[in-house]
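Much of what follows relies on a compact textual record of a protein's fold. Here is one such record, which you should read through line by line:
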Amino acid sequence: MFSLPDLYYGSFYLQMISYILPVWVGCIYWSKLDNILRIFLVSILIACLIDTASWILSAKNIHNLYLGYLFTLNMFISRVIILLFFVKERLPRQLITFSAGLVLLVFAFDFGWIAGSDQHNAFSGSIANGWIIIGCLFCLRKLVMQTLIGLSRKPLFWMFTAVLIKKVFTFADSLFANYVLNNSLAGAYLLFSFTYLTSVAENILYARGFYLARK
């Protein structure tokens, strides 16, 4: 019978292994990737490095919450750049740039005066994830309107779907992580295990998108 710690660590290691899929497929077909897909791949590589650093430090009983901020920044900034590449219209691009700037200000405020480096960046992380969800919905809608047939053959369909699934299903993680960590060890194990397993699904979808770009 598996215990909650077993579930937690098993999910974490499975997530780390799952990074191999998109990184391997993306690197194999690097020459076939457009700028957007290459940004996706670089952001995945950075996320893998951050998670690896977190794992190494955790094994030494060192908990560095700066890595949480760095992870969120990597995901957010890369998604902003991707949206600016994908969206060509002037007004939406201006809205993306302006709103992203506001989110970065919130991020700086959270780091300096709210959570700081001693707590999980729940406030700014939730704002950033909400922004990414809205951006992905906008891009998916635009992609659907542009593609009458063969949507499932479009690499970006799988990339945006991967991001959306991860951010929607782990929104509770970013929003309630501090509360759960402070009040329920069992809840923390379950919450983070679910987040890690969702990341596995995300990485599989990324690999699918990179694979479709080979043609």
